[in-house]
Structures are given as C-alpha cells and as structure tokens.
Amino acid sequence: MTPGSSKTKPPSMSPKAWASAQEWESHRETITRLFWDENRPLREVVEIMSRDHGFNATPKMYKARTREWGLKKNLKVSETREIIRQAKHGEISVPLEIRGRKIGSKMLKENLRVVNIADPDGNHHNPPNIHRMAEAALRAISDYSTVAFQSATFNFSSNDMTPYNWDSQPCTWLQRLWVAADNVAQDRDSAANFQNLNYCFDLFVSLLRQESPESLAVAHVAFFKLLTIGPELAKVFSRFLLGLSTIKNGKTHPLTRFWLKYNEMEPDEARRAASTVMKAYFDSVAAHLQQSNWIVMYLQCNHSRLLHKQGAFPLSEVEAIFEKTLTKMSNDMISAPSLAEMESLAPDFRAVQMQLVFFLSDNCRFFEADQLLQEIGLWWESDPNHSQKYAVLYSVWVMAKGKIFYGLQRYKEAQPYFLEYYNIVKTTAGLSHSTTTSALYWLKENTLKLETTSATNDTALLVKIVEEYKDSWVMARIIKQEDIEEMSTE
C-alpha cells in the first residue's frame, strides 16, 4: 500500500444464515441434552452447537426456543410463591421435575425441602397421594375450627346439640338422610326414593348457613353412608357440598378446601383417611375449649360409631374412644361437688351409654348390648320422672331394645318396642319430624319381616304404616317449601 493512499477494508464475510425451524427440530435432542440434562450454561451451549454442529443462533433465540419446549430452569417470583403454597397444601407433587430434573430457583428448592420427605442419603421422595390429600384435609379441618371459634360461630353453650333434644338439627338431618339412602339402596328404580334423597340435599343448605359444630361431622358421615350405596352418589354429594361452600364461603375457605380434597380422593383413600380426619376435627374443637365438654365427647362417640358402621373407622379405635369417654364422664360424676350436680350429669352419661349399646348391636354383640340396656333401665326405674323429663333419651332406649330383638331375628318380640317408639316420637315431635320418619321406617321393616317369617298377617296395620311413612315425607317436603317461600318474602 503506497503512502498517502486511503486505507481500504477487506471484503466483508457474509454471516452464515440463522438456524431454520427445521434445523431447530433436527437438533432438539442435542440442545436439550446439553442445556437441560447436563445443565450447561446457555453461552456454553451456543458455543458447542456453533463449533461442533455448525448451528447458528443467538442466546435470545435459544431462550425463546427452550421456553417453547418447556425447559424452564427458573420461575417467576409469583410462580415460585404459588408452587410453594400448592405444595404445602398437598395440591401438587413436589419437587417439580421435567425429564427427571428439579426445576425452579434456589429459594423454591429450599422451601420445597421442608415439604418433601428426605431419606438418610438426602434423597427426596414424594409421599403417596393419599398422604398429601389427607394432610391437606387435616390442615383444612384445623383451620376451620380455628376460624369458627375466633369468629364465635361455634357455640357449645346451646342446648341444640344435647342428645336428648328433639330439635338437634344436624342429628335429625342425618337421621332423615340415612333413611332416604336406605330406601334408594332397596329400590334404585323408585323416583320417590331419589326425590326424598334430593330433598335431604336441599335441607343441608340451612345446616351450612347455621354452621353448627356438628354440621361438618354429619356431612362427613353422610358421605360414607352414600358411599356404601354407590360411589357415584357419594361423589354427587361431595361436589354438592363443595359447590355450596364455594358459593357461601369462597374458594379459599377451610371448609371449601376440605371438600375439595374429598372430591379428589378415591373411595378407598377416603375410607383410610376418615378416622384420622374425624379424630383431628374433634381434637381441634376440644383444644379450643377451656374445659372438657361432654357434648363434644358424645358427638365423637356417635360419629365414630356411625363411620365404623360404614367401614370407615377401625373397631379398636371406636372401642378406645368409648372407653376413654365413659371413664372420663364417670370420674367427673364421682368428683362432682354435690349430689344434685352429679345427677345433672347423668343424662349425658346415659346418652353415651346408649350409643355404646348401638355400637355393640351393630357388631352383633347383642348380649353385651342388652346387659347395658338393663343397667340403663335401672336408672329409668330410680325416678319415674326420668322417662318424661328425658323423653328423647327414653325413646332411644325403647328403640335400642327393638333393634336388639330385630338383630336376633326375633321380630315378634321387637314389634311392641318399635310400636312404642313410633307412638312416643309421633306424639312428641309430629308426623313430619325426621325421628318419626325413622320410627316408621323401622316399624315398616319389622312388620314386613313378621309377614314373611310367621303366621302373623296384619295387612291393615302394614298398609297404615306404609301410608303414614309416605305421608311423613310428603309433609316434611311441604313444610320445607313453605319455609323457603317465607324466607323469599322476608
């Protein structure tokens, strides 16, 4: 180059063309292996692909393509927080993996470490789905009772839950649903049977509105009662409860979360979780009370017995609950400061004993059940006013006697007790009351047994019982419709 001459640039090399869509797909496995499986930095992947494969693309192009392929090494802060929340509530499986590689930021991995279970070698494992769902249900149960006590929604000073009160609404609702479910089991082709069951679903709306401490427990028992008839009925009921709670309380409310978990469980999973869930609920309720509450102990005995009857509560655990409860109650009565106070505790003690009688009968231990009934009978005889003062409790004693004979297939001996039970509840509570409906159901079943197993043939009585049984349902639905119309005009 001569002095003074202008400096000339060498001819520019035209860059190689950027990778086409077809080339991206043909090299996808290689890029995925380098970037994801081997966890190499992006700049290193760019260099290797250019040098060894003649593949040209900018880092920005790589980022767009790997996102499209779902290879996200890091998450947004909002995504990280949501995953941690879902993991803690058992809503997702953790740690999150794609092609066997954990994803997310260091913060995510640190937070998920407390959610996972680690073995002695430091390897993290996911607990089975049932454990995660049960844990989420338990957390929802605990949160529900905490919220209910903090907002003073639960009230244990009320007499509405006493076992000798005709108007214990959760209990009478369960009684009616139980009869309706048994009718469906006997005849699935009957439109009237499903109409009655649907009526019971409608009734639960008022229970949810009241938020009695017993409402969740009876709904839980009802779920398993329906499950014994058919999984589809139980699922319909749990979805119904989930929808009700979502509308009334919102998606994040503990009650909504609880029924969401039961919607996700398979029938066998729900049965395995039932006893743990119910014990946790009553333990949580008891923990919020300053002193032991006999009503809570009674409810736990009753509902554990009913769950056991549906195959959802182990026999030994129910026995332990009864033993613990009756021992506690007996000690409280012995240590009562006065005879009058001790006598005031007796009805609750007898009510739990009555539940034990039903539990023994359910398990065909009729001799033990009858022995206990005779002991309770001595209490009735000790004061003639007891049977009138505690009419519900006395009627249950009469019913239990009938059921023992029914279980022993001694239907003729059972009949007078079922008739007496029916007459007591009809006179006291009325034909439309669920207790009367239940009494008519048992009287009808026993009379039918008499018709088929003995020479007794009282067709007129059977026709009358069947007609009154139908009327009790019709009247109940009419009263419910009048209540709805009255509420709509307020």
Explain this structure to me?
With 490 residues, this protein is an all-alpha fold. The protein has 3 domains: 21-68; 75-115, no CATH class; 136-489, no CATH class. It has helices spanning 21-26, 28-37, 42-53, 59-68, 77-88, 106-113, 129-150, 169-186, 191-210, 215-229, 231-249, 254-264, 267-288, 294-309, 315-334, 339-362, 366-382, 386-389, 391-407, 411-429, 434-453, 459-489, and strands at 97-98, 101-102, 117-118, 124-125. A two-stranded antiparallel ribbon has the order 1-2. Strand 1 (97-98) and strand 2 (101-102) form a beta hairpin. Helix 16 packs parallel to helix 19. The chain starts with 20 loop residues before the first helix and ends with a helix. Residues 1-15, 107-120, 124-128 and 481-490 have low confidence and may be disordered. Residues 20-73 form the Clr5 domain. Residues 1-16 have a biased composition (Low complexity). Pfam families: Clr5. InterPro entries: Clr5_dom.
Strand content: under 5%
Large-scale geometry: elongated
> Which percent bin holds the helix content?
over 70%
Distance between the termini: 105 Å
Contiguous helical run count: 22
Taken in chain order, the helices and strands follow as HHHHHEEHEEHHHHHHHHHHHHHHHH
Oligomer: single chain
Structural class: mainly alpha
Q: What's the pLDDT, averaged over the residues?
A: 80
State Rg: 33 Å
Write down the domain tally.
Answer: 3
| Spans where pLDDT lies below 50 across 5 or more residues | 1-15, 107-120, 124-128, 481-490
Total strand segments? 4
Largest sheet report: 2 strands, antiparallel
Strand order of the largest sheet: 1-2
